[in-house]
Amino acid sequence: MSDGATVRVAAVQIAPDLETPTGTVGRVLAAIAEAAEKGAGLVVFPETFVPWYPYFSFVHPPVMTGGEHVRLYQNAVTVPGPVTDAVAAAARRHGIVVALGVNERDHGTLYNAQLIFDSTGDLVLKRRKITPTFHERMIWGQGDGSGLKVVDTAVGRVGALACWEHYNPLARYALMAQHEEIHVAQFPGSLVGPIFADQIEVTIRHHALESGCFVVNATGWLTEDQIARISPDEKLRKGLTGGCMTAIVSPEGKHVVPPLTQGEGILIADLDMGLIVKRKRMMDSVGHYARPELLSLNLDDRATSVMRTVASQDGQSFRQFEPGSQTDEADDANRLAG
Predict the structure, then answer these.
(1) Per the record, which residues fall in region Disordered (predicted)?
(2) Annotated catalytic residue: which of 136, 163, 180, 280?
(3) Can you give the pTM of this predicted structure?
(4) I need a labelling partner for 194 at 20 to 30 A (CA). Which of 55, 235, 269, 337 fits?
(5) Reading across the β-sheet that carries 156-162, which strands appear in turn?
(6) Which of 68, 104, 126, 129 is catalytic?
């Protein structure tokens, strides 16, 4: 991306359809069209927006969430699949980069996934949240280092993290070291209360300053009727309010436009990409301000697998269930030798 370029971006804060996944996807497609109509080259949606964030797991004990958990499985997104096909087509038709949070179903496990579609409609990044937070660990599996990537898109180099992954400084540094220009942040919104919105703001503004990049953050919104549907207990419902901080932040740590903390809407902002160099001229965390001979990061970016097959010359196969195990490798050598 040229230093003198200007990129228009959009951050979406809308409510999901808690009843039908097709309803939420319809809202996503409508928001993509609206953002594109307003000239945006990038549009960002909240964390696991499709079909919906598992709010039920925050306010109900695990023993009471089986039915809703199964319903989430039934409505989750397969990648690739009909949902990704529809979003890819919309990105291609409108010539816009799309960052979408989904509940991804991979056979018997759900994952908190972040998908980035380039303006061509190509899915250029699918990553999974590396460590679900607290109640989320009953819902999602863990991702791996293969998703800690920055990708080239029509709007520049884009990286992404979900929610409290931003509290993992090494995960953030992995993206910083790949020179991200626009960071996509996604939080659920309508959760925990006003303190969560304050924490989100501190977190994304700090990352913008430390990485010298723009941050586009989207949080979700729940209506009063949706909150009542999730929990009939008035005390528990208080935990499903506030926590919204849809915002666009510059490399100087400033809001490019006022953040959206209540209601539905789409933030639109023009990013002056020249601000990245102006910030990094003073402080480049992975360049002239780094001390790699003292402090550096080791990242295992291999995709994990529960099984790998090693074929012998006679066509027999040996299966290893713990990739990289020295014991397994020695056993394989002995088998092949015998």
Answers:
(1) 314-338
(2) 163
(3) 0.91
(4) 269
(5) 151-153, 156-162, 182-186, 214-218, 247-249
(6) 129
* Residue 19 designated active-site: no
> Is 163 an annotated catalytic residue?
yes
CA–CA gap between residue 10 and residue 256 (Å, rounded):
12
Q: What are phi and psi of 265, to 5 degrees?
A: 170, 175
Task: Exactly one of 47, 68, 104, 136 is catalytic; name it.
Answer: 47
Give the DSSP H/E element, type plus range, for residue 74. Answer: helix 66-75
Residue burial 261-277, b: 16+ Cβ < 10 Å; e: rest: beeeebbbbebbbebbe
- DSSP letter (8 states) at residue 284: -
37 CB-contact burial (10 Å; exposed 0-12 / middle 13-18 / buried 19+):
exposed
Percent of the residues in the chain that have a pLDDT greater than 70, as a whole number: 92
Q: Where in the chain is the domain with CATH 3.60.110.10?
A: 6-282
CB 165 within 8 A of CB 131: yes
Contact between residue 132 and residue 164 where contact means Cβ atoms under 8 Å apart: no
Both tokens assigned to 36: 């594109």
CB 159 within 8 A of CB 175: yes
**Distance between CA atoms of residues 139 and 216, nearest Å:** 26
Q: Can you identify the CATH homologous superfamily of domain 6-282?
A: Carbon-nitrogen hydrolase (3.60.110.10)
94-103 b/e (C-beta count within 10 Å ≥ 16 → b): bebbbbbbbb
> 79 pairs with which residues across the strands?
none
Q: Alpha helix (H) ranges present in 95-168?
A: none
pLDDT band at 1 (very low <50, low <70, confident <90, very high): low
